[in-house]
Amino acid sequence: MTADLIGNNSDIAVITETHLKVKHTDGVVGIPGYNIFRRDRARRRGGGVALYVRSTLQPTAWRYSSDDSQFELLWVRINSGTVVGAIYHPPRPIYSVMSLLDYIEASINELQCDFPTDQIVLAGDFNQLPDSTLIERTGFLQLVRQPTRGANILDRIYVSGPMYSKISVVRSTVRSDHKAVIAYAEKCDTKSAKSRSIKTFRSVSPASNALFLQLLASID
Fold this sequence. Notes:
Blueprint: H1 2-7, E1 12-16, H2 26-29, E2 34-39, E3 49-54, E4 60-62, E5 72-78, E6 82-88, H3 97-114, E7 119-125, H4 131-138, E8 141-142, E9 155-159, E10 166-170, E11 180-184, H5 206-217
Parallel strand pairs: 6-7
Antiparallel strand pairs: 1-3, 2-3, 4-5, 5-6, 7-9, 8-9, 10-11
């Protein structure tokens, strides 16, 4: 993930299905130069969302006044006048789809009252949540047009107004059956200096492990 963020010169990364729990400290999953914000799934396996935001953007967490822990939705405000939401809607939720839509709509309404001039971005894994229904409830634009898992567009980006000039769906270096979605703003420099070098390393195989254990057995 660090390589992805550096290689794409990313300011913000929305991560879903983090599988993080209270026992996992921020230091374990931290990335230099970025602040991490998390909403871990409570009392159940899997799930969870996180946001990595470049530290220089001075991000701060925002919490909906009627926050409900059953919904995996996390909001972070950026000092540039943008609020970013990370969401994960699992295939078999413990709540109804209608209740999630109500929750999203209500939290966005409160955001727009608190920060009337801010742009709002909602991104993540929506699974089978109806695209048209969410657009109707929020008035947002959906930007992703290419499949992100198989033939389906499960990972989407909704915005309250025009703010991204290019959307790319790429294969991430992170092990996942989902592709990554990268949104570029016009003012962002998407190029980064890269170099190539050759490194040597010790091969690890069952045979080499057996030889190592055989050597250890001969040492007092």
